[in-house]
Amino acid sequence: MSGIVDAHLHLSEDPRDGLIPYASLNGLRYDLDELLGLMDDNGISRGLLLSPPLRGGTPLPNERILELCARSRGRLSPVLTVEPTPGSVADAVDLARRSLPAVRGFKVRLGYLKVFADDPVFDALYGYAESERLPVMFHTGDTATSTGSLVHSHPLTLDRLANEREGLTIVACHFGNPWIQDVGELVYKHANLYADLSGLVVGGSRYLEGYVASLAEQLTRAIYFAGGAEKVIFGTDYPVSTPALALDLVRRLGIDADDRESILHGNAERVFGV
Length: 274
Hints:
The protein has a single domain (4-272), classed as Alpha-Beta Barrel (TIM Barrel). It is built from eleven helices and eight strands. The chain has helices spanning 20-25, 32-41, 62-70, 86-99, 123-132, 150-153, 158-164, 180-189, 208-226, 243-252, 257-272, and strands at 4-10, 44-50, 76-81, 105-108, 136-139, 170-173, 193-196, 232-233. It has an eight-stranded parallel beta sheet with strand order 1-2-3-4-5-6-7-8. Helix 5 (123-132) links the parallel strand 4 (105-108) and strand 5.
């Protein structure tokens, strides 16, 4: 089997990083050396790096993500975060043009910002992404802050965008948790829509074992409904989850070995070109 691809990682090495509490909960140092070491220890050969939020709600600048990837000795590839303003869209497209072929996609933070995926502010981004065959990842499901908007992060809001832009590759992050079956329907309905498994398991709960078993059952049911796992992509959401927790969830899925390999590396290789 090829090395595992982790299609959803965060890192900043910035003391303002809003994910530091998750790192502490999981007993992580949360730096580049640790991340690369965890990848080695868990058979993860490549990863996609996304901006974490900084205190105050803004994401880490995309230029910093490019710098961290450059330090990773070819292990990490950047995904650029795009905010819902004309300036952010223009800057992200310009940076992607200047950074190809390193850039592997874009990310939109639905729910943390009160914007829907089909807002016209993103039209130029989607046009460019379609032309370069770059996926656009969307936060879906629960938000890490109580001030997030679930109306905007519900995965079914992606249905409108997928209908309008059949040439755009869409990735619903976190499998829309807790609306897992809704994402199963989206994956079944739309040829251009995928889902990742990132950030579904966080350590520290006394119900962790039962929760993981419940998640595995729900995800297996969604995969069966969709007719297969060829559009399901592995990710940890480091430091929100650890490779060990995320890989344990994949092992619990009621699927065959070929589907498990597709989730762990084949699908990401095809969708993101890593």
